[in-house]
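Box 3.1 A note on notation
Throughout this textbook, protein chains are presented in two layers. The first layer is the amino acid sequence; the second is a token string describing backbone geometry. Keep the layers aligned when reading.
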Amino acid sequence: MENYIFWTFMLGILAVISVGAAVFLRAYLTGTAPSAILFRPKGERRLEVIDHTSVDSRRKLILIRRDDVEHLIMTGGPVDVVIETGIKSQDALGHPAADGSNEAAAAPPPLRRAPFFGRSSNAAAESLDEPKF
């Protein structure tokens, strides 16, 4: 009986060594790290949650994007409901500010000065122009 357990254990060790050698050989031949074979990055995501908000204590509105099409779903009630489907995503439509056609939206906001408390606006402007000693 001990002989059977010993040879089964040795067969298991031989299998682990063979798998390890195959992983390292494949990594060597392809020029990648051995961990890259086991932990490779996932492909492009097709599904993502864009936004969500609570309607009440039980129900939530969820905006989901799948393949550049957005869907509005209400969950948490007695029945989950698709409210609207086939919404074009903002990335697919293209923002006017993103392509530079709308210059007003692309311009940075004007800078604001800190308020001068206890002075009028004219006094504040005069104090910035002429220093008083």
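The chain has two domains: 2-38, 47-103. The CA atoms of residues 53 and 122 lie 47 Å apart.
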